[in-house]
Design brief:
With about 180 residues, the protein is of the alpha/beta class. It has 8 helices and 8 strands; from the N terminus they run βαβαβαβαβαβαβαβα. Helix content is about 40%, strand content about 15%. The strands form 3 sheets. Strands 3-2-1-8 form a 4-stranded parallel β-sheet. A two-stranded parallel ribbon has the order 4-5. A two-stranded parallel ribbon has the order 6-7. Bound molecules: 3-phosphoglyceric acid.
């Protein structure tokens, strides 16, 4: 998996090229396209076809229907803000990486029952940040985290320095990449 997972919201299809080009120019070859907009599945399908060098996943997937739509569009990983057993079942059956949002021991145990060992930690800043990750790692040494939500340049390095952090998610990657592209 990629180390940086930009959380992408595509409001209109016309924005897709600009955002993905900006990410590529910033050497970020990954995009989590979120099911927060009506064109999410279409954008995933377009991205998969036109940016084969990038890892294109689906985010904010909160039910089986969205998961099916994301996989049909070609998403290669699925992210949820919370834990969905229905989404987990589909992903495990099809061998697709699923990163559910898990911030409590109970949620982590639910993920483990599906054999999931990498979880999104969201919103990272609200649920205790690095301190919470370290505390959760004691009973769950097999778990890797993807802190997301409130992560930015001011705290990314401290998360990355912890060996249980598999990757970082955030919308700030998109913002930064667009700003950088506009400057040049
Ligand atoms: C997400 O769904 O992962 C969040 O909206 C990302 O949070 P951020 O905007 O604080 O990075």
């Amino acid at each position: 998996m990629q180390k940086y997972i930009p959380v992408v919201v595509i409001k209109e299809m016309a924005e897709t090229d600009k955002i993905l080009t900006a990410l590529k120019k910033s050497d970020i070859l990954c995009a989590e396209i979120t099911f927060r907009t009506a064109c999410a599945a279409e954008a995933i399908s377009y991205a998969v076809k036109n940016y084969p060098e990038m890892e294109i996943g689906a985010g904010t997937v909160i039910n089986a229907e969205q998961c099916e739509a994301a996989l049909a569009a070609g998403a290669t990983f699925i992210v949820s803000p919370g834990f969905s057993p229905a989404v987990a079942k589909i992903c495990v059956e099809r061998n697709i990486p699923y990163y559910p949002g898990c911030v409590t021991p109970t949620e982590i145990m639910a993920a483990l029952e599906f054999g999931i060992t990498t979880v999104k930690f969201f919103p990272a800043n609200v649920y205790g940040g690095l301190k919470a990750l370290k505390a959760l790692s004691a009973p769950f040494p097999q778990i890797k985290f993807i802190p997301t939500g409130g992560v930015d340049r001011s705290n990314i390095d401290e998360f990355l320095a912890f060996d249980k952090v598999a990757a970082i998610g955030g919308s700030f990657f998109v913002k930064e990449a667009l700003e950088k592209m506009e400057e040049n």
